Each structure stands twice: as C-alpha cells, then as structure tokens.
Amino acid sequence: MTIPDLKHDGFGPVIEQPLSRVQQIAGMRLHAAWTQIPHVTHQEEADVTAIDTLRKQSNAADLLLKLTLLAYVARSTLLALKTFPRFCASLDPAGAVLQLKQYVNLGLAVETPKGLVVAVIPGADILTLHQLGERINDVATRGRNGALKPSEMEGSCITISSLGNLGGVGFTPIINPPNVAILGLSQARTRPVWIDGTIAPRLILPLSLSYDHRVIDGADAARFCTYLREVLGDAERCV
Ligand code: CAO
Predict the structure, then answer these.
(1) Domain 21-238 belongs to what architecture?
(2) How far does the centroid of ligand 1 lie from the alpha carbon of residue 65, in Å?
(3) S-S: 213 plus which of 10, 38, 128, 171, CB 3.0-4.6 Å?
(4) Is 213 a residue of the active site?
(5) What are the phi and psi torsion angles at 171 (to 5°)?
C-alpha cells in the first residue's frame, strides 16, 4: 500500500522546493534498498584514543597530508574484509548465489551541494593508510565542489557512511546495493572508561554496521565488529 496523498494545504503557507536530480535518484535507491533488503544494524564501540594520538602526531609531522579519523577506520575496515570476505559480496537478484568480489572498491558517502552521493575508491585494499587518506580527502573535496564524475560513483563493494564530528551516538545506515553491508560512524567522544581498576578518559567511536540478513548472520556481524574494534584499539595494526 502506498502512503495516501493526505491533504496538508489550507493549514498555513507552504513553500515548494523541488528535490535535485541527485536527491531524487538517491531517494528511489534508498527506498528500494530499505524495503527490499532485510536490514539489521549491529552497534559497537571502539576505543580510538591511541589512533587519534598517532593521527595528530602524523598530521603535525606531515603538513601536506591531513589524516582524519575516517582514514584509519577505512583502513581497519579494509583489513577486516580480508578476514571476512562475505562482507565484500553481492547477492544475485534471485537471491540464490553469493557473488564474492575478488577486488575491493570502497564506497564513501559524501555530502555534495546537490545531495548525498557514494564516491568510490577503487582498489582501496592495496592502498597504504596515507594513500587512502589522500584519496578520501580528494573525493571529499571534489564532492563538496560538485566535481565528482558519474564513473567515480560506481562499483563499490562496501560503503562507509561517516557523520564524523557532526554528532550522534549511533544510527541505522541504509545498505547501498549491490553491497551487503554499510558501516556508519557517529561522533567519537571522550568518555570515562573503567580500565584495570581505574577510570581513564578515552576517545570512544560509535560504529553502526547495517547488513543484509539474507547474506550475513548476526554472529558474523558481531565477529566483524569485534575484529574492527580490536584493530581500531591497536594503533600499530591499522597503519
Ligand atoms: N568522530 C569525531 N571526529 C571525527 C570523526 C568521528 N567519527 N570522523 C572524522 N572526525 C574529525 C576529523 O578527524 C576532522 O578532525 P581534525 O580537524 O581534528 O582533523 C574533522 O572531524 C573533520 O573531518 P571532515 O568531515 O573534514 O573529513 P572526514 O574525512 O571525516 O569526512 C566525508 C569526509 C566525505 C565523510 C565528509 O566530507 C562528508 O561528506 N560527510 C557527510 C557524509 C554524510 O552526510 N553521511 C551521512 C549519510 S546517511 O544520510
């Protein structure tokens, strides 16, 4: 059943604002994904205190490249895909065959003046942390300037949707077909954490992994997120 066209005129003035073409296309795809894929969102938290210290040191030493927290999370996610290849797959339209990708193109939700798009970083798994950081900065900047080409928005295997420092403690990102998973990042905040009998200030990053339950079971999602949390908690592992 479609939502009826309920009357809402006659109650007060209304300004009509057409959606951009990008917003309309994204809206249709999001609606199809939300209604046709059985979504589950797994919530996790990672202690990124050590990574953030390392990141600040790296940024102070290299004035040409500013690494954001996102670069480290992207790198950790790409490492996780090596252990959990099912997250780098598509399901055929009949829902009978899993298509395991033998390449890793990372999708990144990017805010542009015309709406949200998914920029794709091809071969992301073979990039170093710094190369990945450069590519993320590049697509973010060109996205903000509306300069991404259509061919740069195709072929993702898994997507990251980062609300970065905008806020939030978790959300339910919608899977970007033909992906079977999307990782959402909310704002990392410093919180008091009980460690070895004392309370310490730690930077805690909320992770929200939505997955297609036809392909991924809750236990797989829990293992994937635990792996991600462990890599993000160990600064040496994700560089
Ligand atoms: N928590 C706290 N701070 C974070 C963070 C997080 N999860 N992620 C990034 N940050 C920090 C960065 O480290 C940076 O801090 P410094 O200035 O100290 O280095 C600051 O936030 C700004 O980062 P940024 O937003 O400029 O860059 P990014 O690499 O984090 O993000 C991109 C790139 C493409 C994700 C961003 O430009 C963008 O478009 N964001 C919006 C995406 C969106 O709307 N998603 C929602 C989709 S669902 O509708």
Answers:
(1) 2-Layer Sandwich (3.30)
(2) 15
(3) 38
(4) yes
(5) -155, 180
